[in-house]
């Protein structure tokens, strides 16, 4: 029978590793492209009339702990509603918002309209469910110019890379309505899952190392004890790198962090106690020669 070429056998493993790396990179690029497309999505609500008020709303930041979303709102009157050659309203303009925001926006006639940040309350969800937490809220915009309701068109985008947005648009009584569903982005979810797997892996590694030291009745093995102690504090620092800064006591802690810390601390104490008992008694100093 023909023998396999040793050169082909030696090249097989590096080739498989290279293919795996390429596959992972392609998958990562595809996921990043999907998130980039989601951030570029524009949601439109309201009426597209020649004489209208355009509202460009951008989700700047979602503060899950404060249960608040910050919208950056830019208002632009169009057609007969704007002064010739400018972006100022011909009469006093009021942009009415929903109850979830902090009041209406008023612009004086003839004055330049500037961008403003509008806080919007989140009506559901809890940050304690991190990284699987999700939130909902509703945003409404209606325009009143000179005491009369005028058409309004809203264009909404999302700039918060830590959250993905699902938006349903509608129109009710001349107002543009946008129902938002907010959840952690795919990158945040993937990193949080990796953190939990890594925490458990480190805890199991320390558990196996501790079991080896105890069963083999090793003495005070300082490199191993230093590694265990370093892991105990490294886990806390690693946990604080979670995207979005979730508070202590969230689901991430109860699924991985707290248990990993407990296992590492227990192993460290157990190994120290066992090592002290396994250490041979100290020999007395020899008596000085007379």
Could you describe the 3D structure shown?
By secondary structure, the protein is an alpha+beta fold. It folds into two domains: 42-184, Immunoglobulin-like, CATH 2.60.40; 188-278. Helices cover 38% and strands 28% of the residues. It contains four helices and eleven strands. Strands 4, 5, 7, 8, 10 and 11 form a six-stranded antiparallel β-sheet that branches. Strand 10 and strand 11 (175-184) form a beta hairpin. Helix 2 (186-215) runs antiparallel to helix 3 (222-239) and helix 2 (186-215) packs parallel to helix 4.
Present the secondary structure layout:
Blueprint: H1 6-40, E1 43-46, E2 53-63, E3 68-77, E4 93-97, E5 105-107, E6 116-121, E7 134-145, E8 148-150, E9 152-158, E10 163-172, E11 175-184, H2 186-215, H3 222-239, H4 251-278
Parallel strand pairs: 2-9
Antiparallel strand pairs: 1-9, 2-3, 3-6, 4-5, 4-7, 7-8, 7-11, 10-11
Helix pairs in contact: 2-3, 2-4, 3-4
Number of H- or I-type helical stretches: 4
Would you tell me the structural class of the helices and strands? Answer: alpha+beta
Q: Indicate the low-confidence ranges by residue numbers.
A: none
Q: What's the alpha carbon Rg, rounded to whole Å?
A: 31 Å
- Share of helix among residues? 25-40%
Structural domains: how many? 2
The rounded distance between the terminal residues' Cα atoms is 83 Å
- What sort of overall outline do the alpha carbons produce when their principal axes are compared? elongated
The CATH topology of the largest domain corresponds to: Immunoglobulin-like
As a percent range, the share of strand residues is: 25-35%
What is the correct CATH architecture of the largest domain? Sandwich
CATH class of the largest domain: Mainly Beta
Largest sheet: 6 strands, antiparallel
Mean pLDDT over the full residue set: 86
Number of strand segments? 11
- The H-and-E topology, N to C, reads as HEEEEEEEEEEEHHH
